Amino acid sequence: MVGLEVRDAVVRYGATTAVDHVSLQVTPGAVVALLGPSGSGKSTLLRAIAGLEPLVSGAVLWDGTDLARVKVHKRNFGMVFQDAQLFPTMTVGRNIAYGLGSLGRAAQRERVAEMLDLIGLPGFESRRVTELSGGQAQRIALARSLAPSPRLLLLDEPLSALDTGLRRRLADDLARILRATHTTAIHVTHDHQEAYTVADTVAVLQEGRLLQEADPDALRRTPASREVAAFLGFRAFVTQQQARVLLWDGTLPVGTVLGIGPGSLVPDQAGVEVPILDQGFTVDDVEVGVRLPDGQRAVVSVPERLDSSTMRIRLIGGAVTPV
Ligand SMILES: Nc1ncnc2c1ncn2[C@@H]1O[C@H](COP(=O)(O)OP(=O)(O)OP(=O)(O)O)[C@@H](O)[C@H]1O
User: Fold this and answer.
1) Where are any strands of DSSP class E within 147-249?
2) Residue 246 near residue 290 (C-beta atoms within 8 A)
3) Over residues 269-298, mean pLDDT
4) Cys bridge to 166: 14, 162, 261, 296, which one at CB 3.0-4.6 A?
5) At what angle do helices 134-146 and 105-118 cross, to 10 degrees?
6) Relative to the CA of 188, which ligand 1 atom is closest?
7) Residue 282: what pLDDT?
8) CB 40 less than 6 A from any atom of ligand 1
9) Of 7-11, 146-150, 159-163, 297-301, where does mean pLDDT reach its minimum?
10) Ligand 1 center to residue 301 CA distance, Å?
11) CA of 317: how far to CAs of 155, 214, 222, 242, 263, in Å?
12) Is the pLDDT of residue 284 over 90?
């Protein structure tokens, strides 16, 4: 079983090339995240895989069979969108049973109950869709898509309409549910933390091009280019010599620089003194903007706001990136 294969796909809207010669594979059971900024072509690629956008060239295949002539509803792919798009006049149970027409009534009821257990909303069968919270509605949409056991699940920013805390929790749940059901899936997101949580492999898109495909750890440690590194939050780049000044004890391969991102710099009383430029609160801590000795701006996370114009820091790691 090969699973999904996208071969050299191109999608255009008039003069805009939304998907620019992208090749991608998703083996059965794997979860791949399509990660990229707004307008990078994530949704278009997903829609092309679903059969909702025509390809200018290239192909979408399943187990080696070209799907060009296979209609959207015959592909046996499930989709979940940003807004749950539940049927408002049906109960939760009827929504989840929607794709289960081939099963008898008792089997449908059993499958609906199983899905509700899976998403952590047991007993919700007779609830009205209009009375659900945003997070509950997204869980029901997921249950509805998973109920017929699609061979591929396409998730288009399913969590991005939710607030940050809920989004993090649901990302954990989604990762667990996809693994528990051995679902093959593609998850579109612009949030790298969400991509790392949900997916085995992350494919980074920019301006329609696939810049890198790697597991979250490799992506963070060795982004393929500065473009990818910058998108992942590595905003300052230092040479071996500059890294040494910041007391880093590692060695950079020839032809690379070290990207400094979240967690790369830590406060250290024995460290290098740098001026504080700004301070801002995040959900978890305070991000202190500092000026590095070579003039670049970088960020250090600390638990409390600092009452000082300088701080002492040490560089403990980063992303090894081509120069
Ligand atoms: N229906 C359309 N008609 C014309 N251009 C479109 C259409 N849909 C998307 N585009 C363009 O194609 C490019 C890719 O858009 P797409 O929506 O796939 O990106 P995205 O990465 O999913 O963005 P977002 O995260 O904002 O949804 C963009 O330049 C966009 O303006």
Assistant:
1) 152-156, 185-189, 201-206, 209-214, 236-238
2) no
3) 94
4) 162
5) 130
6) 22
7) 84
8) yes
9) 159-163
10) 34
11) 33, 19, 12, 13, 8
12) no
* Atom in ligand 1 nearest the alpha carbon of residue 14: 4
- Whether ligand 1 lies within 6 angstroms of the CB of 15 is answered as no
Tokens 């949409």 — which residue? 141
Percent of the chain with pLDDT over 70: 100
- Smallest CA separation from ligand 1 atom 26, residue: 38
How confident is the model over 18-29, as pLDDT tens digits? 999 999 999 999
Per DSSP bridges, beta strands 310-315 and 152-156 are: unpaired
Could you tell me if 208 and 18 are in contact, meaning their C-beta atoms sit under 8 angstroms apart? yes
Determine the CATH number of domain 4-221: 3.40.50.300
Distance of CA 43 from the midpoint of ligand 1 (Å): 7
Which amino acid, 309?
S
Over residues 61-93, the pLDDT tens digits come to 999 999 999 999 999 999 999 888 999 999 999
The three-class DSSP label of residue 246 is coil
Spatial separation of the C-alpha atoms in residues 253 and 320, rounded to whole Å: 8
The correct CATH number of 236-322 out of 2.60.120, 1.10.287, 2.40.50, 1.10.12 is 2.40.50
Task: Please give the number of the atom of ligand 1 that sits closest to the Cα of 44.
Answer: 18
Say how many Å lie between the CA of residue 92 and the centre of ligand 1.
32
Mean pLDDT score, 161-178: 89
User: Token digits for 11?
Assistant: 């999608």
What's the whole-model pTM score?
Answer: 0.90
Q: How far are the Cα atoms of 107, 127, 273 from residue 45, in angstroms, in the given order? A: 35, 35, 47
Interface ipTM > 0.90: yes
Domain ranges of the chain: 4-221, 236-322
Answer yes or no: is the C-beta of 43 below 6 A from any ligand 1 atom: yes
